[in-house]
Design goal:
Distance between the termini: 8 Å
Largest sheet: none
Number of strands: 0
Strand content: under 5%
Number of helices: 7
């Protein structure tokens, strides 16, 4: 498993903790990540993902609530809600290409949520990506370019396609 997938896993766990405990638990959530035995680059990515996704969770919730007409965001399973928040942040900051952000969210749902969750998350994030600035209005397909000046690392996020565990 590559370091960015591991980072997403840790960020998702910490987001679930923050979801239950609120802002006052941010230091504890960051501590959870820092105390990991993961490599330094994985810890750095997880901290960055957690900080970004948590800072924008209210915006993400508002957008997701508008799109999921039949599901109030707070009625969604905690794991799904936080996978969606993380992917929403990745999509809206350009942290990862659209296809990678959605595929990683689906992968997290397959690992940690219900059998129906991957399809639900895929559908919702597909809609989010089609509404983003830069989506090709003719095809409805999102452009795989960052939406702002958020730096992307030089290493492609190929872990999406790597099913082998390095552990």
């Amino acid at each position: 498993m590559k370091h960015r997938h591991r980072a997403r896993r840790m960020a998702r766990q910490a987001l679930c903790s923050l979801d239950a405990q609120g802002d006052q638990a941010l230091d504890l959530a960051m501590g959870f990540i820092r105390e990991s035995t993961e490599p330094v680059e994985t810890i750095y990515e997880a901290e960055r993902m957690l900080a970004g996704a948590w800072a924008s969770h209210a915006q993400a919730d508002e957008h997701l609530a508008r799109l999921s007409r039949r599901w109030d965001v707070h009625r969604m399973p905690t794991v799904d809600r936080n996978i969606l928040r993380l992917a929403w942040w990745e999509l809206h900051t350009g942290y990862a290409p659209v296809r990678v952000a959605i595929t990683e969210a689906i992968r997290l749902a397959q690992e940690f949520s219900t059998a129906d969750s991957p399809r639900f998350i895929n559908g919702l994030l597909d809609t989010v990506s089609r509404e983003m600035p830069g989506a090709d209005s003719a095809s409805g397909q999102p452009a795989d370019e960052p939406l702002d000046d958020a730096p992307l690392d030089d290493e492609p996020d190929e872990d999406v396609y790597d099913d082998e565990d390095e552990d």
